[in-house]
Amino acid sequence: MSKLETIPSEYNEWLVSLKRQIQAAQQRAALAVNQELVQLYWDIGAGILMRKKQHGWGAKVIRRLSDDLRREFPEIKGFSVRNLDYMCLFAASWTRDEIAQAPLAQLPWYHLSTLQSKLSTKKERLQYAQLAVQHGWSRNVLVHQIELRTAERIGAAQNNFAAVLPPQQSDLVRESLKDPYKLDFLELSADVRERELEHALVSRLSDFLLELGTGFAFVGKQVHLEVGGEDFYIDLLFYHIKLHCYVVIELKTSDFKPEHLGQLGFYVTAVDEQMCSSQDAPTIGLLLCKNKNRVVAEYALRDANRPLGISKYELTSALSDEWKSSLPSVEDIEREFSLDNDSIEEGDLHED
């Protein structure tokens, strides 16, 4: 009887490398399919626009075109009248060369049609396209971020990052913070207490993480620190995976006061001393307050030697029913995050 063949020692290492190679090839193939599909839709939209202009095509012809394409290609769900209208708008907004370049070439058609329907200017569409690629937003998350005007708020928090951090790190940290933060907790009253706000943030953590942005990992609430034999508690503590640093968040339901920054700086120092390893970047402190005087905030930050930021928060309790209905539910967000956003599914295309 022959002996069983032994597995070579280098086999597992090569297998891991091979899996990565196959996954990379799958991603490239999916991206290539997506680019072909987007270019096809641009061509269809451009063709319809040309015939509208030259031959006076109207809604009746477009409905006939939709019916004929659906009949010929029943397995493809992208030829509804509404989707043909999006193709026209898409072709009118971008040149064929532009759609072949990043970031548009990296987004599925469902994302691109959402940009067309939700945003009115080319500049805004490009901004959110870049953010969607950078952060890997699903379509539902993209809608959420557009409704909350995230692009306009990124990097707007008052801070001292440029003065206390290296330039590259300062830019990365600044881009990770917003002002104001939109806290979509409709059940909260305007005179919410800090503990009530903290509890709501934790109980709706998936929403709050979505508002914070990509890279934030939740560590805990009321995180205990002992300094000089006394007990202290941090409202919320996160770790930013991309920045490789802890982020201390302090909540104040009152307007900003300079003494708030002293408390925040104390917590940042304590985390640096007691929790950080040699591989961690300096801890960042973020104060969320009900309102702030910009001049007072600038004065308070001027001589601070720790990286600190100050942002307002807004309780979006006065949203219209139409606005509320456009936001994804927590279940929608969780379901979207569970999907492989890199795959191109024809079922993701618009259908009337």
3D architecture notes:
The protein is an alpha/beta fold and 352 residues long. It has 16 helices and seven strands. It has helices spanning 11-55, 59-72, 81-93, 96-99, 109-118, 122-135, 139-147, 150-153, 161-164, 167-175, 194-203, 205-212, 258-274, 294-302, 321-326, 330-338, and strands spanning 158-159, 181-183, 216-227, 230-240, 245-255, 284-291, 308-315. Strands 1, 2, 3, 4, 5, 6 and 7 form a seven-stranded mixed sheet that branches. Strand 3 and strand 4 (230-240) form a beta hairpin. The longest helix is centred in the N-terminal third of the chain and has 45 residues, at 11-55. The radius of gyration is 25 Å and the shape is globular.
Compact description:
The chain is α/β, with parallel strands linked by helices and 352 residues long. The protein has helices at 11-55, 59-72, 81-93, 96-99, 109-118, 122-135, 139-147, 150-153, 161-164, 167-175, 194-203, 205-212, 258-274, 294-302, 321-326, 330-338, and strands at residues 158-159, 181-183, 216-227, 230-240, 245-255, 284-291, 308-315.
SSE diagram, text form:
Layout: H1 11-55, H2 59-72, H3 81-93, H4 96-99, H5 109-118, H6 122-135, H7 139-147, H8 150-153, E1 158-159, H9 161-164, H10 167-175, E2 181-183, H11 194-203, H12 205-212, E3 216-227, E4 230-240, E5 245-255, H13 258-274, E6 284-291, H14 294-302, E7 308-315, H15 321-326, H16 330-338
Parallel strand pairs: 2-7, 5-6, 6-7
Antiparallel strand pairs: 1-7, 3-4, 4-5
